[in-house]
Amino acid sequence: MNLLRIAIKSAKFRRTSLILTIFTIAISVALLLGVDKIRKESRSSLLNTVSQTDLIVGARSSPTNLLLYSVFRIGNATNNVSWETYEHFAEMEEVAWTVPISLGDSHRGFRVMGTTTDYFDFYRYGNRKPLVVDDGQRFDGVFETVLGADVANELDYSIGDEIIISHGLVSADFAGHDDKPFTVVGVLAKTGTPVDRTVHVSLAGIEAIHVDWQDGGRSSVTLDAEQALQLDLTPTAITAFLVGLENRAETFQVQRAINDYPDEPMSAILPGATLAEFWRTISTIEQILFVISGFVLVVGLLGMLTTILSTLNERRREIAVLRSIGARATHVVSLILLETLLVVVAGCVAGVGLVYGLLVLARPMVARRTGIDLAITWLDSTQLTIMFGVILSAVVVSLVPGVIAYRRSIQDGLALKV
Amino acid sequence: MIDRAAAVVCLEQTRFRWPGQSNDLIDIDELTLQAGEHLFVRGASGSGKTTLLNLLAGVHTPTAGVVRLLGTDLAELSASRRDQFRADHIGVIFQQFNLLPYLSTVENVTLACAFSARKRERAAESTEVKTAARNLLSALNLPDSSYDAPVNELSVGQQQRVAVARALIGGPEIIIADEPTSALDTENRDRFLELLFREAEARSCTLVFVSHDPQLAGRFTRSIELRTADDMPGDAADDAVGASP
Ligand SMILES: Nc1ncnc2c1ncn2[C@@H]1O[C@H](COP(=O)(O)OP(=O)(O)O)[C@@H](O)[C@H]1O
Ligand SMILES: [Mg+2]
């Protein structure tokens, strides 16, 4: 019978109070690991919103603002980019491809984006994943639309349905382009990016619905869809465009050329760098969560300390018996330490179990709702460090009851104060 | 006549007082016990009986003088070596609550070997440690059915006999018992003493037995009385009163 077996049996004997402690530790560990997991998943999903695009170009604005409206469809561009300017840069020899985008309209709360079919060829997200048309095909005609997965899903649209696009971002009936409905011709596969919540139409489509609008109001002359098709639907302006370069090494050079363009104030941003910067500003929320989880852990450890301190009295006899058979004072400290270790390791195991259990349960739901495929991976080094930290702090905490028990056992000797 | 070299227990000018006490609680000029001797230590509550046992067990060290067991001066050992000495050479029986409630009866007995390789080896000389424990329990009239049962199912008398088995296992030279019968009724007490003496004699253990009950003195080969400073100013201990028939 060694000390570890004695510690295990003794702890089992007093399991009721210890199980509660294990539970609190498990919850703190689960919280810490969970927050870490969420942070990593949201970070990677954010950073993976757009990939393989070297530059995003729009009218002069802050990089974050440009990123937000062009990639996340949040907020608005303050200015447009003229079609001439777009064409100028699209024809630069360093530029391999461009995808123009035109924003400003919406459909029942979802943003409408005018673009070209190049979008489906060149837009990449995640680890260079291309967009896939799950159902149907790409738009071809002016009044055709391809829906993001969430749009089709939430509004219950399928191929062949007709939708009305509202002017501006409020979905009020009076601002509808109700005379020019769009036919759903394709639905994209889920990406876990804002693409899922976007209604895609051609640039000509955007142009067509605006031909009889002027300065945000409907002009006196109205044109129906047939008449609109007769017009030249080349846009005069777009909101922004994505750029892929022939040679990535020229990124900064091209960026400078765009930023210094004399004819029109422009901004070109590197999506990766801007995303990372954007992440830093929003990750404070995760850091706060992390700190809160840390406090939960402190509470858990204090709870454990209280429990162990309160068991010291009832363990006094046990310790005197062990001393009488030759246990040294250091054995007494070890006994307390071992008990703490048992509790905290059990707590960690239970916490990890809790996290993985929740992960497995939440995975299909998260994938369905956000398109993020939660990776179920073995604990990484941060998480192992967290656990190691928890165990280490528990051991440090347990030195308090350990030293108290040590002192007492020296003072008590073999005397059992009954 | 006293053969000090062969003595199992030898106290010389042993004094002990707790910090803050103005008189010596323990003041024993000379006390020598040979192998197999049974000493009865009598004294009122607070007279220092438990303190004396703690000195013998090496848990406390005397303020002055010598405690020599089996030729070893305990004061010369470090605290952890004294603990090891106790683990190897001494068996201890308390008044009550000798047993760990989370261990079975047999485990409570073999527990004595947990910190002592010497006891482990000696217990397992002819058989397994567990079997040795069972044999002891059976010699102490404990029913077979209780061996693997939780100890809190035993009566107080039985629990005290389990404590004797634990003190005896591995053949320590010295058994010290701190009022082991005070929680027992007369019948159980007599049975307990009979079995304790029988097993201690069979192993020529030296026994130091403490009690406030003077009735028991007659059964021991020797007896001393501890007196508090209040009882008798000056010498606090009345040395070695020969009480053998
Ligand atoms: N750990 C201790 N610290 C200080 N004084 C103690 C301690 N243990 C016992 N004493 C004192 O020593 C005296 C003798 O105690 P003890 O040896 O337990 O007596 P007995 O066992 O004969 O009842 C008591 O008066 C008690 O107050
Ligand atoms: Mg006492």
Q: How would you describe what is shown here?
A:
The complex is a heterodimer of chains A (418) and B (245). Chain A has 418 residues and is an alpha+beta fold. Chain A contains 13 helices and 16 strands. In chain A, a hairpin with a 2-residue loop joins strand 12 (213-214) and strand 13 (217-218). Chain A is elongated, with a radius of gyration of 32 Å. Chain B has helices at residues 49-56, 79-89, 105-110, 117-123, 129-139, 156-168, 186-202, and strands at 9-16, 26-33, 38-43, 64-69, 72-73, 90-93, 174-178, 206-211, 222-226, 237-242. Chain B starts with 8 loop residues before the first strand and ends with a strand. Chain B has one domain (9-242): P-loop containing nucleotide triphosphate hydrolases (Rossmann fold). Chain B is globular.
For this entry, give a set of tags.
heterodimer, A: alpha+beta, 10-stranded mixed sheet, two-stranded antiparallel ribbon, 13 helices, B: 245 residues, alpha/beta, Rossmann fold, 4-stranded antiparallel sheet, 7 helices, globular, binds adenosine-5'-diphosphate, binds magnesium ion
